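Data availability (excerpt). The following record was deposited with the supplementary files.
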Amino acid sequence: MADEPRVGDAPRTLAEKLNHLARPPGSTRALYLDEIVEGIEAVGGQVSRATLNTMMRGRNTNPRRSTIEALATYFKVSVSYLLDDPHPALTDSEHELLAKLRDPDLVALVSGISELRPETRRSLARIVDDLRQMQNSEQAHRSS
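Predicted structure:
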């Protein structure tokens, strides 16, 4: 997704959510309606191009449940994401993580890491674990 919405700026309407999901991370363009329809059919769902078009334009705000379920399956999101608040029931640890991400330095760091290849991210995670252990060891050493 070109610019991931920040927590406070998350898409709210069904049309906004669908348009957000239709732009895959790292892609230079949104998926075409036909691509989405074919993808939905590939996962066993069914939605017409016309229905999808009216939904993404905000003209169809009350689609059938089966349509919402097919979209949720295709985009790999929950039905509640499409119908409700995008952060329906955050746990305490998720709230803590979101609070930490208000630090601009962490946002820049996480954004940079998200652009790395998976194997590079795994290597970086091991380095972070090593640094955390060293820091904890130093703190324990000072307090004794």
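Summary of structural features: The domain at 7-83 is CATH 1.10.260.40 (434 Repressor (Amino-terminal Domain)).
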